[in-house]
Amino acid sequence: MELKKILVATLATTLLGAGVASAEQVKIGIAAEPYPPFTSLNSSGTWIGWEVDIINAVCAAGKLDCVVTPVAWDGIIASLNGQQIDAIMSSMSITEERMKTIDFSDAYYNTPAVIVADKSMDIAPTPESLAGKIVGVQASTIHQAYANAHFADVAEIRVYQTQDEANQDLVAGRVDAIQADSIAMAGFVESDNGSCCEIKGIVAKDEAILGKGVGAGVRKGEDALREKLNAGIAAILENGTHAEITSQYFTSSIFHE
């Protein structure tokens, strides 16, 4: 009888261990560099922001056990392919270049790229208007790629490791303009720090560089995870959770054609 109890206990432990293994956490990579209002650290060292809330909602709807994992932005794709993280949800645009090395989920937001400058400056988001100017961009972003392709022939492109560094140099007058995401810049120009500046307009469309919106990046062949993320994204868009989270951070739509 005792032997039977031991065998049952051993079997239960084995099955429990298998259950734990099947519920292994999914490490969702975000940029370690704060990118408010999408991601930032609060006073207790917890990651907060629109994108963190969206990650939690997508994972809950997709029945995934996720943990937010900060990784340096310029090495985030290498970290994904090196299996340090399982997915990227860090305002990464779905571009042709990135799709050569990783796959993407469906888009969970899509906003245009804009040029921001001091209110006193007569600047438009065109090569002609930016001729002779210094344009700041964050490294390893679609904005750096776009500025290099469209403005580098006529303007100096200054590259920063974080968007905040670019913003601060704009305020200090060390650059004439910056190119970045419209929603992030809307928050910046509405802040006390960015009150000197305004959005000058949306840059001309270039889908090959700017992409088709922001999605979750996954390793090639990780179709099961991608499908669960897609299911989660579809669910929160349909049930209103996406809109509810968005309304807490933004006053305008986060989906643009």
Walk me through the structure.
The strands form three sheets. The protein has a five-stranded mixed β-sheet with strand order 4-1-5-12-6. It has a five-stranded mixed β-sheet with strand order 9-8-10-7-11, sandwiched between helices. With 257 residues, the protein is an alpha/beta fold. 38% of the residues lie in helices and 23% in strands. Strand 2 and strand 3 form a beta hairpin. It has ten helices and twelve strands.
Total of DSSP H or I helical runs spanning 4+ residues:
10
Beta-strand portion reads: 15-25%
* Poorly predicted tracts of residues: 1-23
Instruction: Give the C-alpha Rg.
Output: 21 Å
Strand order of the largest sheet: 4-1-5-12-6
| Count of individual beta strands | 12
As a percent range, the share of helical residues equals 25-40%
Mean pLDDT: 91
Through-space gap between termini: 69 Å
Shape designation: globular
Structural classification: alpha/beta
Largest sheet at a glance? Answer: 5 strands, mixed
The run of helices and strands is HEEEHEHEEEHEHEHEHEHEHH
